[in-house]
Amino acid sequence: MSIAGGRAREGDSRLRDVAVPGALLAMFVGLGLCWVLAAPDGPEALAVPSTVAVGATVLLIGLGASPGLGLEPSVRLMGVAGGLWFVAALVSAWLRTADQAGESPTSVTVGQFADTVGAGAPELVALVAAALVVGVVAAQLTGRIDPPATIFAILAGIGLLALSITGHPSQQAMGPVLVGAHALAAAWWCGTLAAMVVTIRGRNGWASALPIFSARALWAVVVIAATGVIAGLIEVGGVANLLDSGYGRILLAKVIGMAALVALGARHRARWVPAVTRHRAPEATSIRLAVAELVVMAVVLGLAVGLSTTAP
Asked: For this UniProt entry, which segments traverse the membrane (predicted)?
């Protein structure tokens, strides 16, 4: 979308250009906090590629859902995200193989890797879905097909579910349902905001998309909060155990981060959204506020990835 009105200055345009890489860096800040909080029993090594994979899938979900806000996502950006996701899933599967074999990553053979992936590692779903994303983008760029953007969101959602509902969440009867709903709602919320930052051009674009996003985000936050609290308390065994384990401390940090994010979102809903709706907020202001919220979201996402790879 490119609509004139309240154009961003050069510095704010650069901020928009670095928003996605900056958000990925913020995710690693959140992951680093997990290692500090859970030391010496922090997240597993595969949390590093998993952070990249989650970041890529979240962006794909947001870009794929953005036509619902009247936006036209970049096909090339979806291709880059798909390629990054494929590489991250490949590295994650290799590290999982090394962990299961009790060997260093440099000692793992291709045969061992194939056995691990073939046995149903969650990375298998991610590898197939990411490869499909890259393939569809390539076909679209050459003019062979013109699929709806939602196909990318669906593929990314499948990969995200495969990663999020395996491991310790699968050990509880309601774990996969709660964690799956939590992950998809969070991915839509964060990914759609990221898609807005990189896609919208002009003050009128924000005036069209932001009110719709804000209304839908309220329901996403309700799902995230409800499923996150229930799933977390089930895993940790109650509020009294929050400080007794690394998992509990990470969960508490995530809850605090989520509370801060909800407070920031409420502030933006009360001030930013009305100003944008009345066309009184310049594009530069919208970019800065959106990027600030996106960075906080990314830190919480990093905490979530670390939490998923830490034993309760």
From this structure: 18-39, 45-65, 77-95, 124-142, 149-167, 179-200, 212-234, 246-266, 287-307
Higher-scoring residue by pLDDT: 272, 248: 272
Alpha carbon distance 93, 196 (integer Å): 32
What pLDDT digit, counting tens, does each position of 187-241 carry?
A: 999 999 999 999 999 899 999 999 999 999 999 999 998 998 888 777 776 666 6
Report the number of distinct structural domains present in the chain.
1
Does residue 78 fall inside a structural domain? yes
**Residue 261's closest CA among 206, 164, 190, 199?**
190
Single out the residue of 251, 250, 246, 310 nearest to residue 43, CA to CA.
310
Q: In sequence order, what are the residues at sequence separation of 6 or more whose Cβ sits closer than 8 angstroms to the Cβ of residue 175?
A: 165, 168, 169, 231, 234, 235
* CA dist 299 → 149, 200, 215, 224, 266 (Å): 27, 23, 23, 15, 18
Instruction: Look at residues 156, 166, 115, 160 and name the one whose alpha carbon lies nearest to residue 133.
Output: 156
Angle at 262 between CA 256 and CA 268, to 5 degrees: 140
Tens digits of residue pLDDT in 31-90: 999 999 998 888 888 899 999 999 999 999 999 999 999 999 999 999 999 999 999 999
Q: How confident is the model at residue 4 (pLDDT cuts 50, 70, 90)?
A: very low
User: Is residue 2, in this structure, part of any structural domain at all?
Assistant: no
State the pLDDT confidence band at 167, using cuts at 50, 70 and 90: low
* φ and ψ of 167, to 5 deg: 80, -145
pLDDT, position 2: 36
Token pair recorded at residue 4? 């004139």
Beta bridge partners of 201: 2
Parent domain of 53: 10-308
- What's the per-residue H, E or C state across 104-152? CHHHCCHHHHHHHHHCCCHHHHHHHHHHHHHHHHHHHHCCCCCCCCHHH
Indicate whether 4 belongs to any domain. Answer: no
Judge whether residue 8 has pLDDT over 70.
no
